[in-house]
């Protein structure tokens, strides 16, 4: 009887896993949490318990030059084939996914591989859904912890270092990256692509406020935090997706930071997804930073009256080749075209116009 019952339980367990994971590229639900607990305090941004890892069912696919043809391997097979630790590792963390965004992430993965990086694709789509925003927000904490564990395993088992780790997160994925960066050792860089608003706003994050840092992407989560805002006007409550606050060392507000050229008025998803488009476009192109930069200021609110960028005081580069070279905590406003190539100048060589004599 015991045997029979055990088989039944196993079947149920397998069925459960299959139901959650059948869409992922691997059959594994990653744990990585061990005995760690996630404490909950009412009235804070950690007021809801995350779900168990089996329910979140995240998976991590490592794609490298060696495994690209077969779509990568589960990160638990880190050493087979051998991990090439001479390459940088880009960890891609979607927020709330759908088919359109999945396609964009795939494009980013491809260009990052072309540039000679290792890529780890984080799949937490079972948890990251808009039907239960608050729960997904809570679960993001666990996924961040798992990302940190994956990085720790890489550093422990290979020659790779945290200096080579770059997390790229979109929407809620930006906050997952924040959690990962604030767990364990500091990573080189986190790029936030239109980081999610929503509940973050509820917890009193106002202009210049450090409140809620532990629950969101902030300047302390990596050596260099760069952020591209494309639909930044509060949170989901206001019908916008992105968080307007400055979160990193360099915050880029593209166009007005809220509405992107070429997106139909009110199409917040289009505006939000553009952050991913801009970043992807920047990867294969040197000199992507040659946007006409309208202004820089010490706060987002100050951009209206900010200092005009000029050849003597140019914008830092936005996107893949952004560097922490322009001081901390500046907001920058940049412009784009309405269609690809979005960057206004980078495909053209500066030409000398002959003025009428
Ligand atoms: Ca943080």
TrEMBL record:
Cross-referenced SUPFAM superfamilies: alpha/beta-Hydrolases
Subcellular location: Secreted
Family stated for the protein in its record: Belongs to the AB hydrolase superfamily. Lipase family.
InterPro entries according to UniProt: AB_hydrolase_fold, Lipase, TAG_lipase
UniProt GO cellular component terms: extracellular space
Protein name (Swiss-Prot/TrEMBL): Lipase domain-containing protein
Native organism: Strongylocentrotus purpuratus (Purple sea urchin)
One term of GO molecular function: lipase activity
Record carries keyword Protein biosynthesis: no
Coiled coil: none
The organism's place on the tree of life at top rank: Eukaryota
Keywords for the protein's UniProt record, in alphabetical order: Secreted
Residues of the Lipase domain: 80-328
Pfam families per record: Lipase (PF00151)
Gene Ontology terms: biological process: lipid catabolic process
